[in-house]
Write a structure and sequence with these properties.
Layout lengths: L2 E5 L6 H10 L1 E5 L7 H4 L4 E3 L8 H5 L6 E3 L10 H6 L3 E3 L5 H4 L4 H14 L2 H9 L18 E5 L3 H12 L3 E5 L11 E2 L3 H7 L2 E4 L13 H5 L6 E4 L8 H9 L5 E4 L16 H7 L4 E3 L8 H22 L1
Parallel strand pairs: 1-2, 1-3, 3-4, 4-5, 6-7, 6-9, 7-8, 9-10, 10-11, 11-12
Helix pairs in contact: 1-13, 6-8
Length: about 325
């Protein structure tokens, strides 16, 4: 049986762990910080958690390596060029569009965050727990059908959000330099500044890479119309968080709801010490959730199972 290194930090569901152990000789470590050269040298396959670089140096320590497994839609943590040079197959969710079309929870959470932020749901609930029952303290700015939704990115998740917004009567616009036609008649705009100026809600659905780092910066935030809010369920590094804090604190942005934080995948990340978490403790215009966008049990199961089955088929075909 091929030998595979699994990391406990991945949290695969029991049935998927069982499938791994049926097809591979599985060795487990808590996370890649526990890697040892002697162990890597004997691997045929290895899992790759986000937040830990799987670079050329690590691949060179594993000369037998034939497959890398990562149940992620992006692979910024894997040196894809180095893997290709070494003939190592990478099994991830990137470019698995037919399969991913069935995986909807991140877009659902983005829409839920928008509703919760605009309707003051977390703060009105907290007040109710304290015995307060005052509807006029928690009024929303407007009906969704009177608001416009601006989407940064018109890929799989952007298209889902576009459909959700249209179903609620929102005017939907988008910016995506790689897509010409939006879902359900969404209007394409020429740049982010125009999108910011015309949107009551800006929701980010773009990939994280060198091109998109701090895509939402002080310049874009300065163009936002009064009362606008920002939703981010993509990656924290797409937003300049210093600029975001200033925009929230100064009232240039009415609110934000974030499921992701910049630096969350770095070793030693401490949410309690993050500047946005500290701000949220004392303000009613910032809603945070701990990267739960894709966190439904069926989505966990299916995305894990998909990359595992592809890796199993790869080894079976190779003999």
């Amino acid at each position: 049986m091929p030998r595979l290194l699994y990391y406990d930090v991945l949290g695969y569901l029991p049935d998927n762990r069982a499938l791994l152990e049926k097809a591979f000789e599985v060795v487990s470590l808590p996370h890649p910080g526990h890697d040892a050269a002697t162990l890597l040298a004997g691997l045929d396959a290895c899992c790759a958690p986000l937040g830990f670089d799987f670079d050329a140096a690590k691949m060179d320590l594993a000369p037998r390596l034939r497959a890398i497994i990562s149940n992620t839609t992006g692979v910024p943590h894997i040196d894809m060029a180095a893997a290709a040079e070494r003939g190592i197959a990478v099994f991830s969710l990137r470019d698995e569009q037919e399969f991913l079309a069935t995986i909807t929870p991140t877009a659902e959470h983005a829409f839920g965050l928008m509703l919760a932020l605009l309707r003051n749901t977390p703060w009105s609930f907290a007040a109710a727990l304290e015995g307060e029952w005052k509807r006029f303290d928690f009024g929303a700015p407007a009906m969704l059908s009177r608001l416009s939704l601006g989407l940064v990115g018109m890929g799989r998740l952007g298209r889902l959000m576009s459909r959700y917004g249209s179903a609620f009567g929102m005017k939907v616009r988008f910016f995506d330099p790689y897509v010409e036609t939006g879902a359900d008649g969404a209007e394409k705009l020429a740049n982010l500044s125009e999108l910011a100026a015309l949107s009551d809600v800006i929701s980010i659905h773009a990939p994280a890479n060198h091109e998109t780092r701090h895509l939402i910066d002080s310049g874009v935030l300065a163009e936002c119309r009064p009362g606008a809010v920002l939703i981010n369920t993509a990656r924290g590094e797409l937003v300049d968080e210093v600029a975001l804090l200033a925009a929230l604190d100064e009232g240039r942005l009415a609110g934000a709801a974030l499921d992701v934080l910049d630096g969350e995948y770095e070793p030693g990340f401490k949410a309690a010490e993050h500047a946005l978490v500290a701000y949220a403790r004392g303000h009613r215009n910032l809603l945070l959730t701990p990267h739960i966008g894709g966190s439904t049990e069926d989505a966990w199961f299916e995305t894990q199972r998909h990359v595992i089955e592809r890796a199993i088929a790869h080894f079976a075909a190779a003999g």
